[in-house]
Amino acid sequence: MQLDGRRESSNIEDMRGQSSGGGSPFGGMIPLGGGRGRMGCGTIIIALVFMFIMSGGDLTKMMQMLGGGGTTEYVEQPTGEGYVGTQEEEELALFTRQILASTEDVWTRKFEEMGRQYEAPILVMYTGSIQTGCGNGSAAMGPFYCSADRKVYIDLSFFRDMKKTLGADGDFAYAYVIAHEVGHHVQNLLGDLSRAHRQMAQLNQTDANRISVQIELQADFYAGVWGHYENKMFDSMEKGDLEEALVTAQKIGDDYLQKKAQGYTNSKTYTHGTSEQRERWFKRGWTTGDLSKGNTFAIRYENL
Question: Are 260 and 50 in contact (CB under 8 A)?
């Protein structure tokens, strides 16, 4: 992507290097119903699979990660002291601010076309663990969106883990991850996320997982829509960018992650969609840029 000279978002909370306390990284993260809000659907399940892969199939090591160790190599500093990351980390921080700004530009315009006002989310950069409106989050969980405080959370070490663990790399691959989480914010503003969460609270786990897949595929679609208009507005895409996103979508599909982690798949436990589905819905958004084409909730699950 060509981002030279592009503006940086000011909707950033840089909490890197600040300790937010201990405890399980999954404490209170996904209450069913009620007022606390919840994280992006299915995040815990996919995080567990992702951590299992990162642990090399070592359950003891995975449990240590669950205890708060995480995978980050950045050193935490006491709250209040200035944090200085590596050159690579600071470049990723700049990139993240620029991509968030781009999502603001794109979604502000799209909401205006709908006769609505876009309320941009805050993006929180942190290291290790952090307290959120949805509970205590951890770097081991990867980026996530909390609907209670309307914030996107990311430990920048996730991008390194994407490359090292999944072989998904490249600036547009990273941009896709951010745009996907912002896609959940768009769902929240449009009311789809809360409606889906209310439905999930009334269903058994298998049926709730199906709605989770619909939520995640729509967020992929919205990420594609963002890419469509990002390029249309700024002519920023370079050769290979789309392929980077599609490779990433393929490698974070439930079937791919489950097969890699345990050697087999179980479709009843899918929460984000298969590799083929994630690629297809992202590409649909990228190709059409038409929000009316992204209502995953209006399509039978078997036809997603």
Answer: no
